[in-house]
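Working notes for the structural subgroup meeting. M.R. asked for a predicted model of this chain before we commit to crystallization trials. I am recording the input and output together here so anyone reviewing the notebook later can reproduce the run.

Input as submitted:
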Amino acid sequence: MLIWFLPVFLMFLLLGLPVMFALLSAPGLLLWLNGQERDITLLYRNVYNGIDSFPLMAIPFFMLAGELMNRSRITERLVEFAQAMMGHLRGGLAHVNILSSMLFAGLSGSAVADTSALGSMLIPAMEKQGYSRKFSAAITAASSVIGPIIPPSGIMIIYAYVMGESVAALFLAGIVPGILVGVGLMLTVSWMADRYNFPVATRRYSWRERGGASLKAFFPLMTPVIILGGILGGIFTPTEAAAVAVGYAVFIGLFVMRTIQIRDLPDVMARAALTSAVVLLLVGAAMAFKTVVSLSHAPEILAALILSISENPLILLFLINMLLFVVGMFLDAGPAIIILGPILGPIFVSMGIDPVHFAIIMSVNLTVGLATPPMGLVLFVASSVSGERIENIARAILPFLAVEIATIFLITYVPAISMTIPRLTGFVD
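Returned structure, recorded in token form:
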């Protein structure tokens, strides 16, 4: 009977129950109907046990670092730097939007933070230059999914925690795929710019002006260098790196740029605490949900079903990408990774797929789901920031989603894209 937990969970989602409560209510109801009251206690105890983890402490620290960077108006300097480099191109502000997302990804690791921070600045600016509001919101939402792919990445920390993989290896494996998504979006914008005669944002900056913009953006751009450099050099763990990122953000905000004051810190911490609480409660609920998944023997049943379709890993990777894409339409990336990772990961590792490679396939696919109709979270954020209807943004984002889906399959079938840097640095054999 427990195998019915997934349909009941999906039914609760369709009824509008928040994901965290659906994750707990569906298995709790079935355990009660099955007469397993003792397991209900275990289920809800695992909510706390799922959060009580040293590696997961990196998530609130990275959230706080992102909030500090945003409050320090670092976003403005990144946009200014991107505009100095690419604003002179046709469709310049759309290119600036994408490049800013790639740069901001190295600071926050959050698609939602990217959409809200950059969208509030760039969507009005793009409208003034003649872009439609739905296109401006769509390109902001589409490019924001780069945030959790380029390190630091909250969902990769969650995957590493659940599956016992190296956070550093996943961070390194995400660099090239994240850049590849950005480049694909820029090529799409270039094609659309010629076809629809998009405006040029600014005149071509001189190299002296570009140098000035680079200097202003220097300290923010050093954040990912410090994080990755410290982890790769063995100076600190990923969790400690997140704490270092917070200290660095406070230092440059208070003493270098002087764009925040001590009295701003309580509000920044409160906002970061609320965002972190949402993420960690989802993680805790998903870990409890995972307990019932194990009790129901769903992993064994699903593994047998998958292997009965085909034993060719290339065909199965195609089918799993389709499954993950559909799951990403309805479920946030974090809970989806916790629920599906332990089920799918071992199946493909047993077929010879490198666990880090599969982690990137899964993470990128579910991240793209954040911008996929009908339930993509960043679509709602983009709608809120821009004031445009979600349906209009969903239609405008389709060409960019097509590029991102093509990139997912490229990453899937060309492992070197994600595995080269981890292998060169010795984090993967």
